[in-house]
Each structure stands twice: as structure tokens, then as C-alpha cells.
């Protein structure tokens, strides 16, 4: 066979193979490779600015097991947990990717009010988490997609944030851990943080008892929670977690929530860090 004929045959074969490949691809959904589909794009440690708010993303050590949204306490820096406890490093070693927004003096309220302190209005709210952070990460990186392996972890006021996100999200998070939080602010009527956001209880009880009250919205919670509190907590009474857990067991027994109360523990990283291994095991098994 002449050289020209051979080349023509090879070109014809190539065209057939190329067409078959394109046909096969056209039958497949436009998705990421299967090993990252459930967790989004694999990215290195990075810091983003989402609507003016700094957000750290810390990559896991090895194969990814899921994503954890980390909610800091009132006036805690987003990096405090990593610097003052072993949680971040152990979580990354376990395969979790961490998403850490700078929440400042947020109490994770759904909105701000005329009575909200002017100097607190600059901090992110729950609305920012739901309308800005989560949609951005879903679109940009495939993080916190519906049906994925997404979790929550919160300390102090951040624990309240975990409970409120459990109330106000569906099919995004599959479990959460909440340490030393307050869940029914209507029982803490003189609390300065709540008053600073919602106004005084005696004037605005509906704000204190409505959609921003986790205990009053337990019927909307559909994910299991790991709760922990120290009996010697002088910042948030342990009774807040105990009440929340009792109501969860009463109204949502199928969630198999867990509580861990430590008799001599306070409101500090020594206590919170002591729960790290149990929390990671709790999340990993979901």
C-alpha cells in the first residue's frame, strides 16, 4: 500500500476513535472526577475574602474525609482553635478539610435590628453564612454541596451558631459538634450579648424566642449533634446544654445526639480540647 493510502487510513481510524470518545463524553454528566465529587475540588491551604470577610481553608493531611465549618465564639479569632488546641491538626490528620470564617462579635443572628449596637453591625450574621459563604464555596470549590460530607464545629457562641445552622439548613450538613453554647437565650434575659443584638427582652421577646432560639426550633433540626459543657462554666451555664439535650431527646430521639458533661471543666480550651478525639470519632462515623 502506498504511503498516502496508509496515512489516509490512519487519519480515518483516528477520526473514528475521536468521535467515539466525544460521544461517550457527551453521555456523561459534567462532574468532577469521582474521587473528589463528594467533597469538591482538592485545594491547598488558602485565605479568601468573601464580601469583606476573611475565610481560611485548611487542607487535610491526605485523602479527604469531609469538610468542617468551624464557628468561633464571640470575639474569638478564627485561628484560636488551631493555636490553642489540637483540634485543627488532629482533624486534618483524620482527613477533614477546615473552613474557618472570621466571625468577630457575631451571635449568629438571622438579621440586625435598629436596636443592635452600632459597633456590632459590621460583623457577619447567620444570613451571611447562608447567603454568601456557603453559596460561594459551593460554586467556586464544590464545598458544602447538598448530599456531601459536610459537618459543623462550634465553641461557645459558635456552638449556638452550629445549633442555628442545624435549624436553618437542610441536606447540607450531616452532623455537628457544639461545645459550651447557649441555646435558649430567653432564659438569660439580662445577657449583654443578646441585648446588644436583639434589644432588651422585655421590649422584644419575639426576637429572643423566635427563629433565633435553637431550643424553640428543635422540630426543624434533622442532624445529630455532639454536645459538651463543663459544670464549672462561669460564662455560659451548663444548664443551657443540658436543657437543649433533653429537648432533643424528647422531640428528636431518632437523631441519636450525644452529651458529655464534665464536672470540673470550665469555659476554656483545656476542656474543649479534651473532647477533640471523641468529636472527631463522632463526625467520622456519620
Give average pLDDT, whole number: 89
Low-confidence stretches: 1-37
CATH architecture type of the largest domain? 3-Layer(aba) Sandwich
SS elements, strand count: 8
CATH class bucket of the largest domain: Alpha Beta
Gross morphology: globular
Instruction: Indicate the structural class.
Output: alpha/beta
CATH homologous superfamily caption of the largest domain = Alpha/Beta hydrolase fold, catalytic domain
Q: Strand order within the widest sheet?
A: 1-2-4-3-5-6-7-8
Residue share in helix: 25-40%
Number of helices: 11
Biggest sheet record: 8 strands, mixed
Ends apart, CA distance between termini: 65 Å
Q: Radius of gyration, rounded?
A: 24 Å
The succession of helices and strands, N to C, reads HHEEEHHEHEHEHHEHEHH
Task: Name the assembly state.
Answer: single chain
Q: Tell me what portion of residues adopts beta-strand conformation.
A: 15-25%
Give the count of structural domains.
Answer: 2
CATH-defined fold name of the largest domain: Rossmann fold
Amino acid at each position: 500500500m502506498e504511503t498516502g493510502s496508509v496515512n489516509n487510513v490512519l487519519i480515518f481510524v483516528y477520526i473514528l476513535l475521536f468521535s467515539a470518545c466525544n460521544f461517550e463524553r457527551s453521555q456523561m454528566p459534567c462532574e468532577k472526577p469521582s474521587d473528589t465529587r463528594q467533597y469538591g475540588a482538592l485545594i491547598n491551604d488558602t485565605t479568601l475574602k468573601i464580601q469583606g470577610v476573611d475565610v481560611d481553608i485548611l487542607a487535610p493531611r491526605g485523602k479527604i474525609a469531609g469538610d468542617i465549618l468551624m464557628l468561633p465564639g464571640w470575639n474569638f479569632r478564627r485561628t484560636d482553635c488551631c493555636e490553642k488546641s489540637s483540634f485543627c491538626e488532629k482533624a486534618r490528620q483524620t482527613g477533614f478539610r477546615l473552613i474557618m470564617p472570621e466571625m468577630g462579635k457575631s451571635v449568629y443572628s438571622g438579621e440586625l435590628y435598629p436596636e443592635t449596637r452600632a459597633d456590632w453591625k459590621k460583623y457577619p450574621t447567620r444570613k451571611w453564612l447562608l447567603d454568601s459563604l456557603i453559596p460561594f464555596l459551593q460554586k467556586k470549590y464544590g464545598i458544602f454541596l447538598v448530599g456531601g460530607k459536610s459537618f459543623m464545629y462550634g465553641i461557645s457562641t459558635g456552638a449556638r451558631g452550629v445549633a442555628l445552622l442545624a435549624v436553618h439548613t437542610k441536606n447540607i450538613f450531616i452532623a455537628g459538634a457544639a461545645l459550651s453554647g447557649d441555646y435558649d437565650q430567653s432564659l438569660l434575659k439580662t445577657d449583654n450579648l443578646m441585648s446588644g443584638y436583639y434589644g432588651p427582652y422585655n421590649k422584644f421577646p419575639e426576637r429572643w424566642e423566635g427563629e433565633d432560639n435553637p431550643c424553640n426550633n428543635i422540630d426543624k433540626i434533622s442532624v445529630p449533634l455532639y454536645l459538651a459543657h463543663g459544670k464549672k462554666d462561669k460564662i455560659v451555664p451548663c444548664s443551657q446544654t443540658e436543657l437543649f439535650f433533653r429537648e432533643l431527646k424528647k422531640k428528636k430521639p431518632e437523631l441519636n445526639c450525644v452529651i458529655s458533661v464534665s464536672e470540673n471543666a470550665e469555659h476554656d480550651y483545656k476542656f474543649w480540647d479534651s473532647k477533640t478525639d471523641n468529636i472527631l470519632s463522632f463526625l467520622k462515623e456519620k
